[in-house]
Amino acid sequence: MTQRGAAIAFRIVPLHELDVVQRKLVRLPYSVHVATASPDPVLGDGAGFRLITHDTSTGQFPDIAWLKSRFPNARPLLASNNATCKLA
After folding, report:
1. Which residues of 18-33 are buried (b: 16+ CB within 10 A; e: fewer)?
2. What is the pLDDT of residue 5?
3. Among 24, 78, 16, 20, which Cα is nearest to 53's?
C-alpha cells in the first residue's frame, strides 16, 4: 500500500491507518458448534464447555468478544492463530 497500488484486503478488524480507505462489506454471523453427544451450552453461562479460539496475543477479535459475552463461564482449551486448526 505504500506505493499506492490497488489492493483489496478482507479483515475481521479495521485498520487504524489514515491513508487506507475502508468499507464495511458484509455482516459476519457467528455460531457455536458442539459435539453431537454434548448437550447444548446454556446461553449466558457455558459452564463445563471448553473453547477453541483465536490467539489474542496479537490483538482483540470481535468473535472472541461474542463468545465471552454469551458463554462467560466456558474455558479456553486451545488458542490458535491457525484457521485450519480452528475448523478441525
Report:
1. eeeeeeeeeeeeeeee
2. 62
3. 78
